Every structure is written in C-alpha cells, then in structure tokens.
Amino acid sequence: MRSRRLLVARMSVEVELEKGQVTKYRRHENGRGLVSPGAQVNPSAYVSSATYVESDAQVGPESWIGQGSWIDHGAIIGARVFVGANVHVGADAIVGNEARLASNTDIGRGAFIADGAVIDHEIAVPEFTDVSARPTTRARTVPPGGLSAASGPDRAGWRRTWGARRTPSPRLPVPPVLVTVS
Predict the structure, then answer these.
(1) Where is this region: Disordered (predicted)?
(2) Is the pLDDT of residue 6 over 70?
C-alpha cells in the first residue's frame, strides 16, 4: 500500500531588506499574497501571490490587489477597492472606498484618493496630493494633468472605520534584496 504525503504550502516567507534586517511575511489566505505581521488585511480581500502588504497597512473588505503590487507602510486601502497589477501605493497614502487604481500606477506618499475615484493606467500621483471624484457621478477618470495638489496632513478631513489620517511615517521604502522560503 502506498503512503500518502500531505503537501502543505509554506505559510511564511522571510525577506532580507537592504540593511540586513529580516522580516517574516505571512501568506494571505485569499490569493497567497505576502502580508507583514503588523498589517491588517480583511479576510474577504484578495491579495495576489506576488504582492507585498507592509507593516501598519490596512486593506478593507472585498478589495482586490493585483500581481506585483506593493502596499507600503501605513497605507490604507478602503472597502471594495480595485488595485491593478504593478501598482505602488506609497507610505501613509489613503485610497477611499470603491476607488479604482489601474495597472502600472504610482500613488505617492501621503496621497489621498477619494471614494469612487478612478486612476488611469501609468499615472503617477505626486506625494501629498488629493484626488477627488465628482459628486455628481459615481467615479471619475483622472487624466495625467488633472490632479490637484493640496498641502497639509488634514486637507481632506478623512474619517472612517479604517482610522483617521496619520502623519507621514519617517520610514523610507526599502525594496527586498533576498527572499528565502521557510
């Protein structure tokens, strides 16, 4: 009689950062994306397998994060948000409920994307910029020159169950250098 072997997928991955610091990420149950122990990701959210969610980040219910995306430290992703492939959401940025971020976009550090806003492919939203949706329609596509910059950490007055606006983190993004599976 043959013996059965149960293959168990590895539930954690160790990543060595530039300065030799090792961080252990866990795999999210829905999509197998890499989630830092300090991050909060709703179980109903989908996090693709080649995606990183860094510490202090929050991902809301029913959100979808595509392949190769990076949710940086302290970023907040609201409920039912679509994040395409190869998207970087900068540190301390806030993406409102039902927003849509197309593939290959870069959301700057501390940026605010309003509820229902739609960001086109390959758009770079500058740091500390507010992007708002028109109140008369459900969502608005933001063209390359259609962003309005506003300074100050409380410019949007954003308050939701996901937390209040935070001051920007002093941490700088550090890409992983070496990945070892444990």
Answers:
(1) 136-182
(2) no
Q: How does residue 125 score in pLDDT terms, banded at 50, 70 and 90? A: very high
Phi/psi at 117 (5° precision):
-70, 150
Angle, CA 132 vertex, CA 130 and CA 136 arms, to 5°: 165
Q: Which of 137, 167, 164 is nearest to 153 (CA)?
A: 167
**CATH number belonging to domain 12-162:** 2.160.10.10
Q: Indicate the domain borders of the chain.
A: 12-162
HEC string of 7-33 equals: CCCCCEEEEECCCCCEEEEEECCCCCC
pLDDT 10s digits, 34-53 = 999 999 999 999 999 999 99
Tell me whether residue 16 is exposed, middle or buried, using C-beta atoms within 10 angstroms of its C-beta: 0 to 12, 13 to 18, 19 or more. Answer: middle
d(CA 93, CA 89): 7
Q: Is 3 exposed, middle or buried (0-12, 13-18, 19+ CB in 10 A)?
A: exposed
Q: Which two tokens stand for residue 101?
A: 């971020």
